[in-house]
Specification:
Elements (H helix, E strand, L loop, with lengths): L7 H9 L3 H12 L10 E7 L7 H21 L3 E7 L15 H5 L19 H15 L5 E4 H6 L4 H9 L1 H8 L5 H4 L5 E3 L13 E4 L4 E6 L2 E6 L5 E3 L1 H12 L6 E2 L3 H13 L9 E2 L2 E2 L16 H7 L2 H9 L6 E2 L5 H15 L4 H6 L1 H5 L13 H11 L5 H11 L9 H18 L10 H15 L7 H13 L8 H13 L7 H8 L1 H13 L4
Parallel strand pairs: 1-2, 2-3, 9-10, 11-12
Antiparallel strand pairs: 4-8, 5-6, 6-7
């Protein structure tokens, strides 16, 4: 449980801010105008289905929910809790495509995920493995949350009273759900999924309520009629019913969900009311898409893993990318990382100089919970990528730091500790994605003329000249009609393609200052060797 000390000025600015976390938090102010009864903490929940490896879409919900939680604390000063709930008693419906030992997993279809062996051989079950991956990452980000296992809650009896309540309102739940189902599904649907005493599988069979207060139901299992308690792990609920039961049992006040679950939220909300509870506040966010524009799926493994992003980009850039425009569909693939890194740094650099209302609309305010670090960087990530791209796939950190000191003499790990991480990310990104694609082309005749002029002016340049002076030289050559460029961007494109081997590139003045004038002249010489005579 957390509470925060917030200044009156910040609270007043937050009450009128149009940033989406504050708009969401104001729903909770309306829900509890005088605070939650008895001073109880407002409960935020995120759900996770550990049927596949966690990916960024999974992490997305925890981050965005945490951001709304912080916004509510700024608005209200009230205590809050965050529960990360794992639906790990769910039956394994299909074998994920991106795990080993798939034949072994196929033997456990229908079994609760906490009873499916870990295909990686590290944990006591597949669910334990996936839960541990998620928790390790959430812990590494410093999230304040309480992890809750569905299996522990069901088997430990914590849901027993709620399960009896479901049986008491069995017909009302059926009346809500049956109209939403196809006719053939209606014939077999049950809100309660008993666990088979024979196979241990979660059964999709109709049930009859025998004694709601005792939790007894009747069903058929492989031809035998079974009477069994659904309490203490004897059954699991269908997930829409489970979701509603959980909201009521735990007292959940806020939970968001993807746009694909709008209908599920509607049905679960009706069920929650039928159970005598109040559904939580929340909103539906748009989905992340892969490079092909397809929805990211845990079982397909077609999205970025958390580990992949952190190999090539910073933690803060991941949070920044997730924060922005939650109601717009966004592609999520390796190619978006460099821009996310630099956009994050740009917003971070601007934060200190902004008035309070602008700060509350700045993504970094929400990413850092209002405590935004002020240490800047001497170069952009894009510029670093261009540098290591020219240096080649075998470039080392030591070599990169040597070039950095050409541009910023005080560039040391001690002076810029975050820069060391960016250098490592740049080297990895270049090695795996940039170096294999670089293709330098020969300059055309008019481009070669311009390159010779650039070389001559660089040769005559004062050794103390900075990036801005170099940029002015580059700019003047491109504007000179003598060299035949219809537009200035054609000159820059020629520089990128002939010197760097890429279609896009950096501000050339900054790049030449970083790479060094003599090294840059060597690049020009190599390009001119391939020019037409």
């Amino acid at each position: 449980m957390t509470t925060r000390a917030i200044s009156p000025e910040l609270r007043e600015a937050a009450r009128v801010s149009k940033a989406w976390p504050y708009e969401e938090a104001r729903k909770l102010l309306k829900r509890y105008p005088g605070g939650k009864p008895d001073g109880a903490p407002v409960l935020f929940e995120t759900g996770y289905g550990p049927s596949g490896l966690p990916h960024i879409g999974t992490f997305n919900e925890v981050l965005r929910t945490t951001i709304v939680r912080h916004a509510y604390e700024e608005l209200s000063g009230a205590p809050t809790r965050l529960v990360a709930f794992s639906d790990d008693m769910d039956g394994l419906r299909k074998v994920p495509d991106n795990v080993p030992n798939q034949a072994m997993l196929a033997d456990y279809l229908g079994k609760p995920l906490t009873q499916v062996p870990d295909p990686f051989g590290k944990f006591e079950s597949f669910a334990h493995h996936n839960n541990a991956m998620l928790r390790d990452f959430l812990d590494s980000y410093g999230f304040d949350y309480e992890f809750v296992s569905s299996t522990d809650m069901y088997r430990g009896g914590q849901f027993d009273d709620a399960l009896k309540n479901v049986l008491r309102h069995y017909q009302a739940i059926m009346d809500i759900m049956l109209p939403t189902l196809r006719k053939e599904r209606q014939a077999t649907y049950s809100p309660v999924l008993p666990v088979s005493p024979k196979s241990g599988s979660v059964l999709q069979v109709p049930i009859e309520v025998v004694d709601a207060d005792a939790g007894i139901v009747r069903f058929t299992d492989e031809g035998d009629v079974i009477e069994q308690s659904i309490l203490s792990g004897g059954a699991k609920l269908q997930w829409k019913v489970d979701w509603a039961m959980r909201w009521v049992a735990l007292g959940v006040d806020y939970e968001m969900a993807g746009k694909d679950l709008i209908d599920s939220v509607t049905q679960s909300s009706k069920i929650a009311r039928a159970l005598g509870g109040r559904p939580p506040e929340g909103f539906n966010y748009e989905m992340f898409l892969d490079e092909k524009g397809e929805k990211i799926s845990k079982s397909k493994g077609n999205g970025l893993s958390i580990e992949q992003w952190l190999t090539y980009g910073t933690r803060e850039s991941l949070a920044f990318y997730i924060y922005r425009e939650p109601k717009a569909a966004k592609q999520l693939h390796i190619g978006v990382i460099p821009r996310a890194v630099d956009d994050y740094e740009q917003f971070r650099a601007a934060y200190a100089g902004q008035p309070l209302d602008k700060q509350l609309g700045n993504p970094v305010h929400h990413i850092h919970n209002g405590d935004v670090p002020q240490d800047g960087l001497p170069v952009t990530f894009g510029l670093l990528l261009n540098l290591v791209g020219v240096m080649g796939a075998d470039a080392t950190e030591h070599q990169v730091w040597a070039y950095l000191r050409n541009y910023a003499p005080d560039a040391t790990v001690e002076r810029y500790p975050r820069l060391g991480g960016l250098v490592r990310h740049a080297l990895a990104y270049n090695r795996d994605f940039i170096a294999p694609t670089l293709r330098r082309r020969a300059p055309e005749a008019h481009e070669a003329m311009a390159l010779r002029e650039l070389d001559a002016q660089l040769a005559a340049l004062d050794p103390q000249a900075g990036a801005e002076e170099i940029q002015n030289i580059v700019y003047a050559i491109g504007k000179d009609p003598h060299y035949g460029f219809e537009q200035l961007r054609d000159w820059f494109k020629a520089l990128y393609e002939t010197l760097l081997g890429a279609e896009q590139g950096p501000r050339m003045g900054s790049f030449i200052a970083l790479y060094g004038v003599e090294n840059s002249r060597a690049l020009i010489a190599r390009a001119l060797e391939a020019a037409p005579a």
